[in-house]
Amino acid sequence: MANPPASGADAAPATAERTGSEIKVFLIADVRGYTRFTQAHGDEAAARLASRFANVTRNEVERAGGKVIELRGDEALAIFGSPRQAISAAVDLQSRFIEESIRDPKLPLTVGIGLDAGEAIPVEDGYRGAPLNIAARLCSLAAPGEVLASREVAHLARRVAGTRFLDHGPTTLKGIAYPVNVVKVVAEAANPYKGLRPFDEDDASDFFGREALIDKILKRLSEADLGSRFLAVVGPSGSGKSSVVRAGVIPAVRNG
Predict the structure, then answer these.
(1) What is the pTM of this model?
(2) 3-class DSSP state of 138
(3) 14-18-22-24 Cα dihedral, nearest 10 degrees
(4) Bridge pairing between strands 180-187 and 147-150
(5) What is the residue-wise DSSP string for 78-91?
(6) Ramachandran region of residue 3, left (φ > 0), alpha (ψ -120 to 50) or beta?
(7) Are 2 and 129 in contact, with CB atoms under 8 Å apart?
(8) Tell me: the pLDDT tens digits for 58-75?
(9) Residues pairing with 67 in the sheet
């Protein structure tokens, strides 16, 4: 991925000073188990998985203000000018990967993500430098669904809305001559409690406990007779009529 220097991180800063370098934030993402998936499901299914991974990654990275500079099957390298943008993109990416995996479990996007920031040298096929080396090692270390970053990235970003940094402490990474302080980036859980307000379509992922009623309504609506075109949902005030329709029935209908 972007040809990180084989000699490790130590030689990179001196080279950058001689040739001119840019301080960037690098995000590397990798689909876990891609080789096993290919062996189990074949090249055609693997190609669909890689295409899905590429589309989601490119969309989220560009939406956050970054740029994907390399895609190689189950791997992606993206570059950002802002650590906050990079962290937000990484968290949003993992959220989208989970959503897409739930939507189509046959093409699971189990992805690890690594982030690092620093000087890197622009070259014809991308960039070279220590940050790519570290980002790649952190990506390899990350579990599926996990975002790992160097402490430098977290320090530069300071506070990113909707995220928390969990300090993992100094970690020895293969090919890096010194311990790297690693932080895990996690999304802060939103409070799903709505008070007296009804749940809506956007709250479908937080709405549960009415599956039997939703299933009953859907079966009634799917009946062939003309009377099934109209169905009244009635009950006492505050019993959850609006929520079951808006956050339960309507999303289920939209999802087929």
Answers:
(1) 0.67
(2) helix
(3) -20
(4) antiparallel
(5) EEES-HHHHHHHHH
(6) left
(7) no
(8) 999 999 999 999 998 899
(9) 79
